[in-house]
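Supplementary Note 2. Why include the ligand at all?

Several targets in our set were suspected to adopt different conformations when bound, so apo predictions alone were not considered sufficient. For every target with a known small-molecule partner we therefore ran a joint prediction. The input for iron/sulfur cluster is given below.
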Amino acid sequence: MHPFSYAQADHIDGAIASLGASGTKVIAGGTNLIDLIRVGVETPNQLIDINQLPLATVEETAQGVRINALARMSAVADAAIIRDRYPVIAQALLNSASPQLRNMASIGGNLMQRTRCSYFRDQAFPCNKREPGTGCPAIEGENRIHAILGTSRQCIATHPSDLAVALVALDAIVQLRGPDGERSVPIANFHLLPGDTPEQETVLQPGELIVAVEVPASHTAARSHYLKVRDRASYEFALVSAAVGLELNQGIVRSARIALGGVGTKPWRAHQAETVLQGQSINDEILTAAAEAALQRALPRQHNAFKVELAKRTLVRALSTVAQTGERA
Ligand code: SF4
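The joint prediction is reproduced in token form.
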């Protein structure tokens, strides 16, 4: 294992000052980073442990809810405000990982987790994301779990986070703090498409730290749902997932929020599908039309064409479920 030094940060500005040094990584729960250090994919010179920073709470705000970056996945999923007003977030978290992992893993770390592409994790293979310019064996190789939306000639890896899919559907804002102060980034802009630089996965700059995620309250958030389809019933990453929210008025869609997971190189907002639903009453035909719109630009590879139909069916079922919930409420 690559040798590294370890230090604990006891205040936020001290942590940010340490992050400016080359080869420095932040560690919170460590559930992804430690794995990658063990296999030699991550080789930090220094780890800054931020677990002592006062960023572990979930707080109601005037606009909605603020989830601080060190809140654990389990605590967020259990918070009454999340269960009652943002069920899609609670469901995404509970479907993400085992209870042990949920107790360890932080919200900030969840947004920063790296892809599950097996070539990325195996140094016997080249990988543009791990070593820019070396190639992408997944494009012509084993690509069953890979992306069908947002891909490039350099990388077709999916983003692995369930939580990020739910947050994209709800128009969450990521709060960052760095040497020049705080800035707010809509989560839809936080993760980057691979393009020609798949090694750049987020807009986080050197020296910046995720301090919180803010989620606005809305009727669509309150009537929302997360549906995840995977190879086994638990502790598995999504083949396909759908995060949906609907605001209905006498059966007519006033507002729809849709994001897909397991199919995109980043958490995938499906604006075209939302437009199809706007002002319509919910029925099989309109749900099918929305699903077609969501996958219209899909570019499947040799082993993952099944994801196109699977994603459509997953989205239709998720929307049907939340529509029925809305009608009852
Ligand atoms: Fe690497 Fe991306 Fe290709 Fe996987 S899909 S091998 S992460 S470049």
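The first strand starts at residue 5 and ends at 8. The chain has a mean pLDDT of 96. Comparable summaries for the other entries are listed in the accompanying table.
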